[in-house]
């Protein structure tokens, strides 16, 4: 097992020429101090690269210093004296005093110092160093960079053969003939640590009588660990507990994590057994171990869930020592998971620090910010507002005394407050904070980009959220700029930034709502793919986010007319959100408004899709449940949820109508119109006028369903008038709704024997729907067929039988194609169009005669 130790350099170093050339160049330069974070998953070769760099630089008379977590800052400063010093910090995230240790380097009498930090991810601890460590405190900024280790430039076969050739002499065995198993087609590239473990395992247990050795890289660490376990005197549980609590047993990290994961997964209750009666110091060690699992779970089915289970067990056993609480808290990512533990640690730290003196301190400001993020993530935006505001105000005061050192911390606090403001419905505060922060982040020197690019990407994403509906191109520019920055960040630290990229891509729903769903589809699919992979083994952390991406993808697919795929994505999102609510209820926070809002969103979305696909009976219970939830939310916070309540009233009204419950449908649409009229009076947002117009158009249809056709005219005319206003602002987004309102107005006037007035709106609706159908036929062909049928009836009423027959024939052709793909959904529509066409053709002039009868058909509404 010791042969895997990177410092021994048993296996010749190879496959990293690009990385070594880059690091060698980085070590040069005239600056006094340079710092670099090198990220990579466990076993990828970070430590070996640092060892090799140290060896190569030593030949150029550099001295290497490998820091230990227990090193005193003064000793660090003394160790760094000299003309050329390389400082290596392995597993930097676990150094509780890293900020002070790095700050001490400033006091060293050194020529050139290069600081190489190794970690699996940066996340919060790395960003925090910018203001927490005096290393970056003075006007001479330390050049700082991040780089990620990619797959090695060697094939698995070559890596195995190199390792076997190196290990065999050390073990005193001959080099065997090798057969290297192929990896699955969808497997990630192998890591050096896994390959070396597989080679060592085969050599250690090989029978010399065997002609060849079969090396299975996929189970290399597991095979080596199985051999090691046979030599242990203690049980698996005892060893796992020791590993959790700080006794590493000379196992490489990846093998230690694999053993803990397999042991805790082996039997229910094992997590509790291994964490029972541990001291507060051991609880701190176990929490740090859990975070390494969260970043880099070994290949054990379901092991990703261990992070939440371990933290749930050990965090209550942490003492209220601020150093321990702070050390654990700074490892939580920006969107903490599991959020319950983050909130608990942060609130305890705030209490402990406030009890000391209550003065402005960076630690207290950081704790307040972490508390606000955790509360916001659990859907408790209103509760998060107070700590977010306190954190932002405290950072403003701290930054005023030292702007260069603390401005990044202030901008992050402003970002956190903006997120909470957005979640709690304070749109004006959100927009003001976004404008201020983006302006600040855009003005910093290029040397600060390593710290500010993540914040700038978020700011651009937020600007996209705040653009006016008509400014689609501006929103698209903000989005593309944010994605470009995030792709660079993912290349540097995928663990920290992949989820952020997925979040920004999920925001492409804005393009869908603005009438450009085709442009959003690829980004939404990427968002789903990233989050599906992240959620596969860490459901507690990522399932809610996956549901969000799936829901938005469903909306985009529906806008393109891909009904079946849209329904599948929407139903998956609904299942995930039901599960989230159940889990929250089990933990005592099932009533969180955010979770109920998201559940209602999915219930409503799936209900609408089912109703539109001719399955109103299946849609009914879902839409009624959505309406119930939204009524409750609207009672609790009317300004935030009444718009969604109106949407549910309108959607359920349509479904009631399809089920023949016309009176219930009319009451709900009247309620929706009332809510939306009030929103238009109280707010100037164009979306309220658009939604009011939709409800008015629906109200006209509901009146017609009840036989009150005369009552339908006024709301339908008002709908057309409002839609003409919003179409002037953004034709592409609102043209479908205008076409619907025009078609409904024409049908209503036809039913009142006012066909002459009806033909104009119907012709306009048909023209608009023709244009829309060319771009998105699946979505708009059904509406075009309905409008053509209504136009045929109106033309027939005017005895313009030839034109009427042409419109009716086109409607039949369209519906015939649609019914061929979905008979249940479009079969009845086709039958109606056929009846209208038959009635018109029966009235066409024959042999010069002219029939004076009218068409006996009620007009059709979209």
Automatic annotation (TrEMBL):
<dbReference type="InterPro" id="IPR027417">
    <property type="entry name" value="P-loop_NTPase"/>
</dbReference>
<protein>
    <submittedName>
        <fullName>Tetratricopeptide repeat protein</fullName>
    </submittedName>
</protein>
<dbReference type="InterPro" id="IPR019734">
    <property type="entry name" value="TPR_rpt"/>
</dbReference>
<dbReference type="Pfam" id="PF13374">
    <property type="entry name" value="TPR_10"/>
</dbReference>
<dbReference type="InterPro" id="IPR011990">
    <property type="entry name" value="TPR-like_helical_dom_sf"/>
</dbReference>
């Amino acid at each position: 097992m010791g042969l895997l130790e990177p410092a021994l350099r048993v296996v010749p170093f190879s496959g990293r020429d690009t990385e070594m050339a880059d690091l060698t160049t980085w070590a040069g330069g005239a600056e006094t101090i340079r710092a670099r974070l090198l990220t990579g998953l466990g076993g990828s070769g970070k430590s070996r690269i640092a060892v090799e760099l140290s060896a190569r630089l030593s030949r150029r008379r550099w001295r290497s210093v490998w820091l230990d977590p227990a090193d005193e800052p003064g000793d660090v400063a003394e160790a760094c004296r000299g003309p050329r010093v390389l400082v290596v910090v392995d597993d930097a995230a676990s150094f509780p005093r890293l900020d002070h240790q790095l700050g001490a380097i400033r006091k060293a009498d050194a020529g050139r110092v290069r600081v190489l930090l190794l970690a699996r991810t940066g996340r919060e601890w790395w960003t925090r160093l910018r203001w927490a460590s005096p290393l970056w405190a003075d006007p001479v900024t330390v050049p700082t960079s991040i780089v990620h280790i990619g797959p090695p430039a060697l094939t698995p076969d070559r890596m195995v053969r190199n390792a076997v050739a190196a290990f065999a002499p050390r073990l005193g065995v001959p080099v065997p003939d090798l057969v290297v198993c192929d990896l699955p087609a969808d497997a990630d590239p192998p890591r050096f640590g896994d390959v070396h473990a597989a080679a060592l395992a085969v050599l250690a247990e090989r029978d010399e009588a065997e002609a060849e050795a079969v090396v299975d890289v996929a189970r290399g660490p597991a095979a080596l660990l199985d051999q090691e376990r046979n030599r242990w005197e203690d049980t698996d549980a005892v060893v796992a507990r020791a590993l959790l609590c700080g006794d590493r047993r000379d196992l490489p990290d990846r093998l230690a994590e694999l053993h803990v994961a397999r042991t805790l997964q082996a039997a229910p209750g094992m997590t509790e057994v291994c964490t029972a009666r541990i001291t507060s110091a051991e609880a701190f060690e176990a929490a740090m171990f859990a975070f390494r699992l969260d970043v880099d779970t070994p290949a054990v089915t379901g092991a990703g869930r261990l992070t939440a289970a371990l933290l749930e067990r050990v965090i209550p056993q942490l003492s209220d020592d601020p150093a321990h609480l702070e050390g654990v808290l700074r490892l939580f990512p920006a969107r903490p998971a599991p959020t319950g533990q983050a909130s608990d640690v942060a609130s305890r730290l705030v209490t402990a620090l406030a009890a000391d003196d209550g003065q402005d301190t960076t630690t207290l400001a950081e704790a307040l910010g972490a508390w606000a993020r955790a509360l916001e993530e659990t859907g408790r935006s209103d509760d998060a507002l107070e700590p977010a505001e306190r954190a932002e105000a405290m950072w403003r005061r701290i930054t005023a005394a030292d702007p260069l050192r603390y401005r990044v911390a202030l901008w992050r606090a402003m970002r956190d407050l903006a997120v909470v403001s957005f979640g709690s419905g304070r749109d004006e505060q959100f927009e003001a904070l976004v404008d201020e922060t983006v302006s600040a982040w855009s003005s910093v020197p290029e040397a600060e980009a390593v710290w500010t690019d993540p914040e700038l990407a978020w700011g651009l994403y937020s600007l996209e959220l705040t653009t006016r509906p008509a400014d689609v191109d501006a929103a698209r520019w903000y989005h593309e700029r944010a994605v470009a920055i995030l792709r660079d960040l993912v290349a540097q630290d995928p663990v920290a930034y992949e989820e952020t990229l997925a979040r920004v891509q999920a925001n492409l729903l804005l393009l869908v709502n603005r009438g450009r769903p085709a442009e959003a589809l690829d980004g939404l699919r990427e968002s789903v793919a990233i989050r599906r992979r992240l959620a596969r083994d860490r459901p507690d952390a990522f399932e809610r986010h996956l549901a969000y991406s799936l829901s938005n993808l469903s909306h985009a697919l529906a806008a393109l007319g891909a009904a079946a795929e849209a329904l599948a994505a929407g139903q998956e999102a609904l299942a995930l959100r039901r599960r989230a609510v159940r889990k929250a209820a089990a933990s005592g926070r099932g009533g969180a408004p955010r979770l109920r809002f998201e559940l209602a969103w999915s219930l409503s979305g799936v209900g609408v899709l089912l109703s539109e696909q001719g399955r109103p009976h299946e849609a009914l219970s879902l839409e009624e449940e959505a309406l119930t939830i939204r009524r409750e939310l609207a009672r609790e916070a009317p300004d935030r949820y009444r718009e969604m309540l109106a949407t549910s009233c309108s959607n359920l009204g349509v479904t009631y109508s399809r089920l023949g419950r016309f009176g219930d449908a009319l009451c709900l649409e009247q309620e929706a119109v009332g809510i939306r009229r009030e929103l238009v009076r109280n707010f100037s947002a164009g979306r309220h006028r658009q939604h009011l117009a939709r409800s008015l158009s629906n109200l006209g249809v509901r009146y017609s369903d009840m036989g009150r056709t005369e009552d339908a005219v006024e709301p339908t005319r008002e709908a057309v008038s409002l839609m003409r206003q919003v179409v002037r602002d953004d034709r592409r987004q609102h043209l479908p709704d205008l076409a619907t309102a025009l078609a409904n107005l024409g049908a209503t006037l036809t039913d009142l024997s006012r066909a002459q007035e009806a033909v104009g709106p119907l012709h306009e609706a048909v023209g608009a729907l023709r244009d829309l159908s060319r771009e998105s036929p699946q979505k708009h062909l059904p509406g075009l067929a309905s409008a053509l049928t209504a136009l045929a009836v109106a033309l027939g009423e005017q005895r313009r039988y030839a034109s009427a027959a042409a419109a009716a024939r086109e409607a039949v052709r369209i519906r015939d194609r649609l019914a061929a793909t979905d008979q249940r959904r479009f079969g009845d529509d086709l039958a109606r169009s056929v009846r209208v066409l038959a009635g018109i053709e029966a009235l066409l002039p024959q042999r010069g005669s002219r029939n004076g009868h009218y068409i006996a058909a009620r007009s059709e509404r979209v």
